[in-house]
Design a protein that fits this description.
The protein is mostly helical. It contains 13 helices and no strands. The protein is globular, with a radius of gyration of 19 Å.
């Protein structure tokens, strides 16, 4: 797994993908947080980072599939996956190596946003008047959300040899799991809360309150594991177009 992780992560760094993803993410969030009047923290009069944690998942819905779309799709199209499978590597090692490489790149893009926290911390009146527990919980939630989206992207990439199709499938999975269950909850009547609990957004919002509940963490880990199990099953079948 370590060999696959190093190979994949270095391939990101040796191409424009890593720098493009980081630049687009930081620029987009920076504009939303500081420039656009509808979402700017400077217009609120309150020192909080809700804009970052509200908008970042929607940015991730498109950026993470862009990272993962070539993980297996390109390997299958170029015929290099068969060669990779002949090496002394397990299917889990290949899947996890590619997953952790994409997840690590997403975390690298997320780390510089700590500058926004320290800036808002200094802008508080008095200085430091920020819900730090909520910020920490939101970062944990956003990291776990990124893991789920990366697993969806890896799974989608195993289903096709076309990178564009992989991107569309991954973005669809991410969007449905993030907002779809909340939309279904509106139709569920008395069972609306139960339906919401199946979706990512419910657990993400719970973590954003600063209370780290093991049930929310287990949910994210379980969904990530199921998506990776799907990817491993597809690779293990050795059947693809």
């Amino acid at each position: 797994m370590i060999r696959i992780f190093a190979k994949e992560f270095n391939s990101y760094l040796n191409s424009l993908i890593a720098y493009l993803v980081i630049s687009v993410f930081l620029t987009g969030i920076g504009l939303l947080l500081w420039v656009f009047p509808e979402t700017s923290v400077l217009q609120y009069g309150f020192a909080d980072m809700s804009t970052l944690f509200t908008m970042a998942p929607y940015v991730f819905i498109f950026l993470i599939p862009a990272i993962t779309m070539k993980s297996f799709a390109e390997e299958k199209k170029m015929g290099t996956l068969e060669l990779l499978l002949t090496k002394p590597l397990t299917d889990w090692g290949i899947v996890l190596g590619k997953f952790f490489a994409s997840f690590a790149l997403t975390l690298v893009a997320l780390i510089p946003t700590a500058i926004y926290y320290f800036s808002i911390y200094q802008l508080g009146n008095p200085v430091g008047n920020v819900d730090t527990a909520g910020v920490i919980g939101s970062y944990i939630g956003l990291s776990l959300l990124a893991a789920v989206f990366c697993s969806f992207g890896i799974c989608a990439s195993t289903l096709t040899t076309n990178q564009i199709v992989s991107f569309i499938l991954a973005a669809f999975f991410c969007f449905i799991f993030y907002t779809g269950f909340d939309s279904l909850a509106a139709l569920a009547g008395n069972d609306s809360l139960l339906v919401k609990q199946w979706g990512v957004l419910y657990h993400y919002e719970a973590l954003s309150k600063g209370l780290i509940d093991s049930r929310d963490v287990i949910y994210f880990i379980s969904v990530t594991g199921l998506a990776l199990l799907c990817a491993k099953t597809v690779i293990g079948s050795r059947q693809w177009a």
